[in-house]
Structures are given as structure tokens and as C-alpha cells.
Automatic annotation (TrEMBL), chains A, B:
The keyword Cell membrane does not apply. PROSITE patterns: HTH_TETR_2. One of its GO terms (molecular function) is DNA binding. This is Transcriptional regulator, TetR family. Residues 30-49 bind DNA.
Length: 219, 219
DNA sequence: GTTTCGTTTAACAATTTTGTTAAACATAAA
DNA sequence: TTTATGTTTAACAAAATTGTTAAACGAAAC
């Protein structure tokens, strides 16, 4: 039917474009540069995505959905509140390590095109709504100082995401190698938990703990 | 000598370009768009700045220096530690209200041109160095839970800056008008102080407190 | 008034970038 | 082998963008 059907050119283009934007941070990459990265002819980008803008929209939408799903999965789980948050930090930081410039991309694209945000957010279940009940219970039990769910979540994502956004600056300012920077972010998992709850991470550090497989529990 | 000498075309271009990049968040603005914003002929941008890249470099350098000086002024003052931090939050948030996309610009430009960071940071007095002594004293006196100066500062600037970076997204997600967003950031001053020190802001809120005039004290 | 000199402008040139298209290509079906 | 169909390519066209330049302009000095 088609040439090299298993290569899935469309997916390759998206994958390499993601790499270019989200990992290498080249937010002004041209269609030619994307094509080069994917090792395909530039016209294929138009063949599959019609225009550069539509490719960008696709990438943006998928990225936002992916992040949203990650957040939703953890925050709406049945885990105890602090376990949830701990897991959330872990996942966001790990994800940020993989795609250091994703947040930057989201922010830049939405700034360029503010009406695009409405489409992205209209069906969005806000993270703050997902943890509001838990949070209010914690506060009622006196286990946490009063704070609104909105500010709580924004504190959390600020602490997780800013060091990713500022990667280049931080790395140079503190003379960190790439491995040193990774270590730095690993350390931050505990720091963030501490800043949020004003107490150390419970028990063992949870570096390898987040599940890649469905939970065994079901009954 | 010159046409409209008091107009200071060069300064107007820089000012309007700053407005375009830092306030409106149009990070891909062309020279034509900058010229239109400034109400001048596009060639003047080359006349004064030689190339688009050099204009960008100038803006970037000035922005970074301005921010650095603001931070340095507060953090190296003789105020008590918590006063310093409180003032710092106030200034950073206010500055962020004025230039919501400045951080974004810095991050994008340095990502596009990583060697530019070295020039910007080589003489930089790190904020973490400015508060290290204070911080260690606070910790030694048992008034603050142990944390490194680096993480402390990064927590602080993360909490201050991320909500500015994510302005467009946050505003749309929570359906905030511009005034509601300003109010939200005002509220955050206290929230941030609270997250950092695990206790409420001392005494009166300090909305109008930061001095625009030199301090009376001298002797 | 004219000269001078820095500033401003319009017009031009070169380059980059996006988007289109017709032809070439490869595979599967006939 | 031929045909049909979806994919890929090179070449082209159009638009956008940057950078240059010669001429126009305007205020101050002569």
C-alpha cells in the first residue's frame, strides 16, 4: 500500500519535532530544520500537517494533553494525600528531565496565540479541583497550614517547573554539568516536598517508585 | 544638530521593543513590528543597533542587569533577613507585573544562544551567595529548617516567577480578568513568604512599603 | 542664505522561509 | 506485468524578513 509502512513518517516527524522543541529548546526551528531532524524531505511536513502552524498546534495540544493526563492520573488516585503529592513531584520532575523545554514551548506558543489557550483548557479538569477535598481535610485536621487549593497547586508546579524552564541559566550560573544538573533536580524532589509540607519526605526516597505498570489492585 | 533631539529615537526603540517583548510577550516580533511599535522607519533599527541580533543582545543584557541590580540592592542591604526576603518578593512580583514576559525572554534567548549566558553571568554575584551568611545564621539559631542557599533562592524565585511566566495559561484556566490576575499576584506575596518561612508575613502587609527614594538613614 | 552633519526615509537587494505541484517512486492488487 | 494508490522528492513560486544605500530632511553653525 505505502512506502515503508512501518516507518510511520508522520510519527517520526512529530517525534523529532518534539525532540527539537522540547529537548533541545530550539523554539524557532524552521520547517527545514524539523525535516532535517526527522531525516525527511521538507514537503512531507506539509503533506502530513498542511502547514507549520498546524504542526505546532498538534504538538502543543498533544503536549498539554499528555501533561494533563499525567497530573490527573496521580492526583485523582486513591493514595493518601502526601503520597499523591510526592508521586506528583516525582513524575513532573522526571518528565521535566525528559522534556526540559516543554513548559517553555507551551508558554511561548500560548503567548503567541492566546486564543489557543481556550481550546486547550476548556475541558480541562483543574488540578486544584482534584486535590481540593484532600487539602481541605488536611487543613481541617490541623496537619497543614491554611492555603487555597489554587495557591497550593501553583506553589507546587512553580517549584517543579521553574528550574526546568531556567535550565540553561541555572546550569551556567552554578557551573553545573548535565549530570550535575540531573542530580540537582533529583535533590529538588525532596526540597520541594519539604517546602510544601514543611517536613521531610516520609520514609524512603521514592526515586524508582512511580509505577509504569497498571496497579495490581482492582477488586 | 539632529532631528527632534529630545525624542531620543534610540531610547524609544528600546523602550517599545521592551514593551513588545516583555509586556506583550511577542517573542518572535520582527524588526518591522518593532519599528511599527516605536513609530519609526525600520531602517532606523539598523542605524542604531546594526542588526536585529544586536538589538536583542542589548535588550537581553540590559534586562538581566536590571534584574540583577534589583536583587543585589535588596539582598545585600542591612535589613533583617526576613525583611529582606519579604522586600525581595515584593519587588520581584511588582517587577513581574510590569514585565510579565521578561523571564520568558531571558530563557528563550539563552536557549537560542547558550554561549550568551556565559557573558551575562560571568560577573554575576549569585543571589545565593548574598544571603548565605544570613541563612546559615537563621538555621543555626533554629529559626529555619536546614536548606542550602542555592535551593532556598531557587525556591524563592520559582514561586515568584513561574506564575508570571504562566500568566496566559493561568489567566485562562481560572478565568481571571487582568485585574483579577493582578489581585492574584498581590495575594501571592504573602503566600510565597508563608511557603518559604512556614509562617505568616509579619505585622502589616507591605504593599506600598518598598522605597522609591533613598533611605533617610545615613550616619 | 548656505553649509554641515547627524537623522530619517524610501527603494532596493539578498536571503530565508513557507507553501505548492507535478513527477518519480514503491508497494500491493489485478 | 501492469495498474492503482499512497508516499516521497525536486523544483518552483510567493511571501516575509533582514540588511544596505543613496537621497531627502532638518536643525545648527557659518
Amino acid at each position: 500500500m505505502s512506502t515503508i509502512p512501518e516507518a510511520q513518517t508522520e510519527a517520526v516527524i512529530k517525534e523529532k519535532a518534539k525532540s527539537l522543541f522540547f529537548q533541545k529548546g530550539f523554539l524557532n526551528a524552521t520547517t527545514q530544520e524539523i525535516a532535517d531532524e526527522a531525516g525527511v524531505n521538507r514537503a512531507l511536513i506539509h503533506y502530513y500537517f498542511r502547514s507549520r502552524d498546524q504542526l505546532m498546534d498538534t504538538l502543543l495540544e498533544e503536549a498539554v494533553n499528555e501533561k494533563r493526563e499525567k497530573a490527573r492520573a496521580v492526583l485523582s488516585s486513591a493514595l493518601p494525600f502526601r503520597e499523591k503529592i510526592s508521586l506528583y513531584i516525582d513524575i513532573v520532575v522526571e518528565y521535566g528531565l525528559k522534556y526540559p523545554f516543554l513548559e517553555n514551548f507551551i508558554i511561548t506558543e500560548t503567548a503567541r496565540n492566546p486564543e489557543k489557550v481556550k481550546v486547550l483548557c476548556q475541558t480541562k479538569i483543574k488540578s486544584s479541583d482534584l486535590i481540593r477535598k484532600d487539602l481541605e481535610e488536611e487543613i481541617a485536621k490541623g496537619r497543614l497550614l491554611p492555603i487555597t487549593a489554587e495557591h497550593f497547586v501553583i506553589n507546587l508546579i512553580s517549584l517543579c517547573n521553574y528550574p526546568l524552564l531556567a535550565k540553561t541559566v541555572l546550569q551556567n550560573m552554578h557551573g553545573m554539568s548535565d549530570t550535575a544538573y540531573r542530580k540537582f533536580l533529583q535533590d529538588r524532589k525532596e526540597i520541594i516536598y519539604h517546602a510544601i509540607f514543611h517536613e521531610p519526605l516520609p520514609r524512603i526516597t521514592r526515586k524508582e517508585e512511580h509505577p509504569h505498570h497498571p496497579k495490581p489492585a482492582k477488586q
